[in-house]
Amino acid sequence: MSDYLPPPAPPRSALTLRLWLAGFGLVFNSVAGWLAVRADLVWLGVLLLLLAVVCVVDFGWVVHRKRRGDPG
Asked: What is the pTM of this model?
């Protein structure tokens, strides 16, 4: 029997997970905000659309950090 162990898989980047979560948040909050406005829940729609804007900013920041080469 051999004691050879294959090298471990490279770790996944936490920035990649954050990118996926920001993308999901953007889509979800945009659609939910639009549906809330159509259902005459304007305050909820505005809140959800503001959260979508936050997701856009987060998405852009994560892309900036990944292009810069930040680890993790």
From this structure: 0.78
User: Residue 20 is encoded by which pair of tokens?
Assistant: 């996926």
Mean pLDDT of the chain: 91
Number of Cβ within 10 Å of residue 6's Cβ equals 5
- Torsion angles phi and psi, residue 29, rounded to 5: -70, -35
CA distances from 55 to 8, 14, 45, 62, 64 (A): 33, 16, 15, 10, 14
Q: Are 22 and 64 in contact (CB under 8 A)?
A: no
- AA letter at 65: R
Q: Give the Cβ contact number of residue 58 at 10 Å.
A: 17
Question: Would you say 70 and 13 are in contact if contact means Cβ atoms under 8 Å apart?
Answer: no
pLDDT tens digits along 13-24 = 788 999 999 999
Q: What is residue 21's predicted lDDT score, i.e. its pLDDT?
A: 96
